[in-house]
Design brief:
Keywords: Signal. This is DUF5666 domain-containing protein. It comes from Bradyrhizobium ivorense. The structure is a single chain. Helices cover about 10% and strands about 50% of the residues. It has about 210 residues and is mainly β. It has two domains: about 35-70 and about 165-205, OB fold (Dihydrolipoamide Acetyltransferase, E2P); about 80-160, no CATH class. A five-stranded mixed barrel has the order 1-2-3-12-11. A hairpin with a 2-residue loop joins β1 (about 35-45) and β2 (about 45-50). It is elongated.
């Protein structure tokens, strides 16, 4: 009996089409958020309900070991040589990255997330956590040279740039109306869990 090639090929092509369409559908899905920024709506047991800045209602499971940190404003002069900072930057017109915000880490958080990486708060923004190696104060703010393992970056910090620092926080601060940024991961059932939340003090919106 002759081998009927077409009979064999049709199921293979169909399987390939199904597999390809499945991968395409997965690729088209919205990426799982790793940071949720917004306003606390409620806390119910271990569930934190947040209205995101884009208007979405997000439910987050609070991990049993969740860390809560407060964020409070400090002056631009609070950024000193030797400070370990994080700064969100966008490309400047002169080629020097311009700070959108700066957060100064306390000593017990030195080294947190050291390095530079893409960030999601603005188009083409990046986050750099590094040590301030030099600071030049001018009429237009500060120009910082920051160094991290494997690299360095010059950053312009305009006078109106929000500057904050971390202070110990508590879960009791997660009240309706509080402004937060929650760092999340997706659980196997598709829900989101957070093990670290930063909450603005005195109505402050976390700028990072």
């Amino acid at each position: 009996m002759p081998f009927r090639r077409s009979t064999f090929i049709r199921p293979v092509i169909a399987l390939a089409m199904v597999t390809g369409s499945t991968f395409y559908a997965i690729a088209q899905q919205s990426p799982t958020p790793t940071r949720v920024r917004g306003t606390v709506e409620s806390v119910d047991g271990d569930t934190l309900a947040v209205k995101s800045r884009s208007g979405e209602d997000v439910k987050l499971r609070m991990a049993s070991n969740m860390m809560v940190l407060g964020l409070t404003k400090i002056p631009l002069s609070g950024i000193k040589v030797g400070s370990f900072i994080g700064t969100t930057t966008v490309p400047g017109s002169d080629g020097v990255p311009k700070a959108v915000e700066v957060h100064v880490f306390p000593e017990n958080m030195r080294g947190t997330g050291e390095g530079s990486r893409a960030w999601d708060i603005k188009p083409n923004s990046s986050m750099t956590n590094a040590t301030v190696a030099d600071s030049v104060i001018g009429n237009d703010g500060h120009t910082l040279l920051v160094k991290y393992k494997g690299g360095e970056k010059k950053v312009e910090v305009p006078p109106d740039t929000p500057v904050v620092t971390y202070v110990p926080g508590d879960k009791s601060e997660l009240k309706a109306g509080a402004k937060v940024i929650a760092f999340t991961k997706q659980l196997p059932d598709g829900s989101l869990e957070t093990d670290r939340v930063s909450v603005g003090r005195d109505g402050l919106t976390p700028p990072m």
